[in-house]
Design brief:
Blueprint (H helix, E strand, L loop, with lengths): L2 H26 L4 H9 L4 H15 L2 H13 L5 H14 L1 H11 L5 H17 L4 H33 L10 H15 L2 H13 L5 H14 L1 H8 L4 H23 L1 H12 L4 H21 L2 H9 L21 H25 L7 H24 L4 H26 L1 H8 L4 H26 L3 H31 L5 H29 L4
Helix pairs in contact: 1-8, 3-5, 4-5, 4-12, 4-13, 5-13, 5-15, 6-10, 6-15, 7-8, 8-10, 9-10, 9-11, 10-11, 11-13, 11-15, 12-13, 13-15, 13-16, 14-15, 17-18, 17-19, 17-21, 17-23, 18-19, 19-23, 21-22, 21-23, 22-23
Length: about 525
């Protein structure tokens, strides 16, 4: 094999994967409210759920992305585990649509006639309409599709050159199971079976490998697609793990069935159906084995669901409530879950600060729990950053993280004066005890107002009320300072008592300001 042919093959694979990345990334954004409603509406019956999985995957061009979205919806309670399993089965059939598209367009049409215009128009649109979100997304999808086809063209040409300079015959005598493993490894590495299928189709087109070897590699690729879904379920709730396990077991079953009946199925496709072209035989085999496996599973979905429900009974104990429900790869749902988590975190912090004045409760344990929650939110945020979301999502993420930091600062301020409050609450000095009761009453009133503001759906009205509340706590802070000086003038408090009171007053004021800022960030809408 000449080095030029090798690098053309590698660059073709790179272009194909990069094009697929843009396709998947642009389609990840198509999972807003309408998509959720579609899945809820069309997944109440097993057959409908399978059809929905087929249709959505055919449109989105990636069974892995659909499966990850389904996992997120299971975690968020939008889909039940059993309905999600049916969608995943349908996604396996829908995933073959991409193979048919490549076989029909990539090998039966002169690609340059469509590839170059698509890339040219999409590239210009990406620059000219970069501020027009809808057109930009369409252009990005077009660019991804164009690059995918260009990569396919490169792979075809490199395979044609390879057959002239390299003899593959000695390697074709290896056991078919070794080719299954090759397909599994390639797909696990590149994270998409489409790339593996395209490589195999290119090799078939160049007559480098026979059809039975090609089928074996594709069967391995079917197994390789499960890796991304398995990884997406790690750390999630039990239902997500059950769906991932169900998908893995289905693919094990279908690939094993295909391997055992490999030759008979190929003969049926050739002789009975009448397909003679190796490229279409391969795609037909992939479709046949997925449809056949789904039909067999369909009648046992109830029992299969019961089996899965007995797995992963205990969810991992986590501090957060919502984040484990969504995969960071799904921007829309991840932002929604992060907003819910941050809102709940702020509410919990407000209550934590209020309860700190009840003294008898174990404040330090609850404060450490808040720190643990903050840590999990930060880790999830770091995973979201890796996905390189669109700018408006990144702005919202940063707002929410600023809210978390402010809320945690507010909690720390109250924690730092917990010992002082405990001393004041048990003091036999009437002035000190009375001042403690004032602190407690003001925090209680402040807490109730904040709860009302958080529940307010009108963000602008909420932010206006926060500004008024901010003025109120500043006035209370100043009044208390004046009161302390009065006590000092009357000699009713000792010097160390005054120092304690000034410190408590300052920390309460700083804490209240921080929690107001946290709510303001939560309620703000990115421009």
């Amino acid at each position: 094999m000449k080095s030029a042919e090798f690098w053309m093959l590698l660059s073709g694979l790179g272009l194909f994967l990069y094009g697929m990345f843009h396709l998947e990334d642009s389609m990840k954004q198509v999972q807003g409210r309408s998509f959720k409603l579609f899945l809820q509406k069309h997944t109440q019956h097993r057959f409908k759920a399978i059809l929905s999985g087929m249709v959505v995957t055919a449109i989105m061009q990636s069974s892995s992305i659909v499966n990850l979205i389904v996992l997120s919806f299971v975690g968020a309670g939008i889909l039940s585990m059993r309905n999600a399993l049916a969608v995943v089965l349908g996604a396996n059939i829908g995933g073959t649509f991409n193979s048919w598209l490549v076989a029909l367009l990539g090998f039966k049409v002169e690609l340059n006639l469509i590839t170059l215009p698509i890339i040219g128009i999409a590239g210009i649109a990406l620059i000219v309409f970069k501020n027009k979100k809808t057109i930009y997304k369409i252009a990005r999808f077009g660019m991804g599709f164009g690059l995918l086809l260009l990569g396919l063209q490169f792979m075809k040409e490199s395979m044609d050159g390879m057959i002239k300079h390299f003899d593959f015959t000695p390697y074709l005598g290896y056991s078919k199971i070794s080719f299954v493993l090759i397909g599994f490894v390639i797909t696990s590495l590149v994270q998409t079976s489409s790339a593996t299928v395209v490589l195999v189709l290119s090799a078939l087109y160049a007559k480098i490998i026979p059809i039975d070897i090609a089928v074996a590699v594709v069967l391995g690729a079917e197994l390789g697609t499960t890796i991304k879904v398995v990884l997406g379920s790690i750390g999630g709730i039990a239902s997500k793990k059950r769906v991932a396990l169900g998908n893995f077991m289905f693919n094990i079953f279908s690939s094993t069935l295909g391997f055992i009946f490999l030759i008979p199925i190929i003969n049926i496709i050739k002789e009975t159906i009448g397909i003679k072209d190796p490229i279409f035989i391969l795609v037909a085999f992939q479709t046949f084995i997925n449809i056949g496996s789904v039909l067999l599973f369909y009648f046992f979905l109830g029992a299969f669901g019961t089996f899965l429900e007995k797995r992963f009974k205990k969810d991992k104990i986590v501090a957060t409530r919502f984040l484990q429900m969504a995969s960071p790869e799904i921007a829309d749902l991840s932002i929604e879950m992060l907003e819910k988590e941050v809102s709940f975190f702020i509410e919990t912090t407000i209550q934590l600060n209020m309860d700190a004045f009840l003294i008898e409760q174990d404040h330090s344990e609850r404060y450490n729990k808040a720190k643990e929650t903050e840590g999990e939110i930060v880790l999830y945020y770091a995973k979201m950053l890796e996905q390189q979301y669109p700018s408006h999502y990144q702005i919202r993420m940063n707002q929410l993280m600023e809210a978390v930091r402010n809320a945690m600062y507010a909690a720390k301020g109250i924690k730092d004066i917990y010992a002082n409050n405990k001393e004041l609450s048990s003091s036999i000095n009437e002035q000190k005890f009375e001042l403690y009761q004032q602190f407690k009453a003001e925090i209680s009133s402040f807490t109730e107002e904040l709860k009302i503001l958080i529940a307010n759906k009108d963000s602008n009205a909420c932010i206006n009320q926060l500004a008024i509340l901010s003025e109120t706590i500043k006035n209370n802070f100043d009044k208390r300072i004046g009161s302390f000086y009065n006590h000092a003038g009357n000699n009713s408090l000792q010097e160390k008592d005054l120092s304690t009171l000034f410190n408590v007053n300052r920390e309460i004021y700083s804490s209240c300001k921080a929690i107001i800022l946290a709510i303001k960030e939560l309620k703000s809408i990115p421009s």
